[in-house]
Amino acid sequence: MTTDFLPYSSQDLIKLLESKRNYDFIISVDKENNKREFYAHSVILEVRSSYFEHVLSHGLARKENNIFIMDIPDISVDVFKILIRYIYGGTIDLGHEEAVNIVNLLVACEKLKLEELYDYVQDYLIKHHQSWIFQNFVLIRQISFKYSDFAKLQNYWATTACEQPKILFSANDFTSLDKEALLSICKDENLCVKENELWDHIIRWGKAQNSELPEEINNWTANDFNILKKSLEDIIPLIRFYEISSDDFCYKIMPYSAILSNELFQDLTKFHLVSNWKPKFNSLVSRKVNWNLSSVTM
What whole-number distance in Å separates Cα of residue 201 and Cα of residue 180? Predict the structure, then answer.
């Protein structure tokens, strides 16, 4: 029969960490006035974190009086407290942590290559801090897609953006969304948004990328339209123009006709004026819209 005494071992290692006894590694974390030093043991760091194993095996930490010393300024004191206790004790408690700390913790896990925590932290963030994610939706996109290992958060973001696009499009920082992300959303056949509304959003996004454009479109020059056209040239082909009503075509599309190809605009005009006109550029299938999902509010 095997008896599990791991909790005792874990407690003893935490005591060793807290006592600072026989330490041979000083880690300085955070920046400026928030800096704090942690006293650790290289043998434990090396076997528990592939990041520290790499640091030690490649001589990346300076050594003074037989003590390894290194700075990690991009991890906060609060986050490192959690991770160093995990490295020593094998346990982690996120119950009292704010969402922003958990996001920073996830990024720090990636830096320290604590791969076994990636999925756990992502799952915890999604389950317990959904409202915060919605309120910081663009930020979550930027962070999650920066790291290939954050697949759960990436999939959650993409699914939510398609099923509840209002969360993205109504965000105060929507226009700071990178073009790659906007392209990905517009390409998705599961995006629950009406095409006339999507047009409004991409026009708003395109204008925001070019702050020099006049506020009032009646004051625009041909060059102004060309600037907007250049910004949106990859996105415009993803709009299902033939699903936009005649009224919206008149009031929303026609004012920006200069950013469409002449062939497309002429065909759209005939589509709305000539009965039974067969569209020439209607190659996109309709989106698989679930309006019950898209109507969900935050």
Answer: 15
Phi, psi torsion values for 231, nearest 5 degrees: -65, -30
Phi, then psi, of 36 in degrees rounded to 5: -150, 145
- Does the reported pTM lie above 0.85? yes
- Of the candidates 92, 96, 94, which has an alpha carbon nearest to the alpha carbon of residue 124? 94
Question: Which pLDDT score is estimated for 227?
Answer: 98
The DSSP secondary-structure symbol of 285 reads P
CB atoms within 10 A of CB 200: 15
Number of Cβ within 10 Å of residue 255's Cβ equals 13
Strand partners, 36: 29
If residue 38 lies in a helix (H) or strand (E), which one and from where to where?
strand 36-40
Question: φ, ψ for residue 207 (rounded to 5)?
Answer: -60, -40
Q: Residue 270: what residue type?
A: K
**What residues form DSSP beta bridges with 69?**
26, 62
pLDDT of residue 296: 45
Interatomic CA distance for residues 149 and 167, integer angstroms: 24
| Greatest extent of the chain over all pairs of C-alpha atoms, in Å | 87
pLDDT of residue 4: 59
Q: Within its chain, how far is the Cα of 40 from the centroid?
A: 33
List domains and CATH numbers for the chain. 11-91 (3.30.710.10)
Cβ(27)–Cβ(75) below 8 Å: no
Nearest-angstrom CA–CA distance, 1 and 29 = 44
pLDDT of residue 163: 96
pLDDT < 70 stretches in the chain: 1-9, 290-298
Residue 38 tokens, joined: 């942690």
By CB atoms closer than 10 A (0-12, 13-18, 19+), residue 82 is: buried
Total residues belonging to the chain: 298
Short-list 255, 261, 268, 248, CA closest to 194: 248
Taking a C-beta distance cutoff of 8 angstroms, is the pair 241, 195 a contact?
Answer: yes
